[in-house]
Amino acid sequence: MLLIHCPYCEAERPELEFANAGEAHIVRPKDMSQMSDEDFEAMFFIRDNPKGINLERWRHVHGCGRFFNAIRSTVTDKFLKTYKAGEPRPSGDEIAELMK
Amino acid sequence: MARVGTKAATAATKDLIAARTFATAGMRYANATVTLDAAAPAARVSLRAADRGIGVYSRHLGFELPTTPGATASKGSTHALWLGPDEWLILDTKNANAKLVPTRANAAISATDVSHRNVGFILTGAGAADGLNAACPRDLSLEAFPAKTASRTILGKAEIVLYRTARDAFRVECWRSYVPYVWGLLVNGAQDAHL
Ligand SMILES: [Zn+2]
User: Are the CB atoms for B37 and B119 separated by under 8 Å?
Assistant: First the structure.
């Protein structure tokens, strides 16, 4: 069983308690009515879907209920780091350090 | 609440055209290592609170809400279970009519009576943790899940709240429509734990 560290429960929990919630750090528009269709499409539908390191939202849905963010490899399924929602996006250097 | 199925209850309800059957009435299973019982009717509140609300509801309860992950706090038959950073399950396991919802509304808290949403099961015995682990993926060792801690988790596909009341005693809270499914898994697990 894959164990995922929940930053709110401060402990590792079995993956069955979690749900993936798509790409992290997507900035929601302040005024959606002023967006062009192309900008809306890019914000709403277009995702990176990388092979390798991905920054994702997860939800501890059958636990504390909280959304949080994770750095995960889509190739190995390894979680490099999880952190609370609202914390800044990790820099490229930080991610490179975690991959060592 | 009268036990449905007893002679007294049958006689008392003879002239009625309908009777309420408690979802877990009569459920009991035991082997040499695990005993499963339906918990008595309880009062339950789903509490959401943050910052000032924690103090507001603690004063209503008469003891402090626990604020560390997994922690519980109790006074008599009233228990407060930490479920998330701003969420608790409040139980009175003896008094089903306990006034767990404050009579005066307060914007700092959201307290919803869910007494009839859940039912409880009591698991006791040396094989209780093993029996649960047949369907619950959590590490139930005493180091990872000590007595007097609680957590929302899953049992098979059903969401439950698991409260370890003592080393070899657990309370499982589940939604009442899950009862046949959850009971089946608990009995299966108890049988496996005894092998
Ligand atoms: Zn959590």
Answer: no
Interface of A with B (CB under 8 A): 1, 8-11, 13-14, 16-17, 62-66
CATH number for region B42-114: 3.30.70.1520
Question: Cα distance from B129 to chain A (closest Cα, Å)?
Answer: 16
Residue type, A1: M
Asked whether the predicted pLDDT for residue B9 surpasses 60, the reply is no
Q: How confident is the model at residue B7 (pLDDT cuts 50, 70, 90)?
A: low
Ordered by start, the domain boundaries in chain B are: 23-41+116-195, 42-114
Residue of A nearest to B160 (CA): A62
CATH topology classification for B23-41+116-195:
Gyrase A; domain 2 (3.30.1360)
Which H or E run includes B72? strand B72-75
**Interface contacts (A, B; CB < 8 Å):** 40
Residue A31, token pair as written in the block: 């005024």
Work out whether strand B169-175 and strand B158-166 pair parallel, antiparallel, or are unpaired: antiparallel
Q: Which single residue is written with the structure tokens 């889509």?
A: A74
pLDDT by residue (tens digit) across A63-89?
999 999 999 999 999 999 999 999 999
Q: For B120-144, what is each residue's pLDDT tens digit?
A: 999 999 999 999 999 999 999 999 9
pTM more than 0.80: yes
Map out the domains of chain A with their CATH numbers.
Answer: 3-27+34-99 (3.30.2270.10)
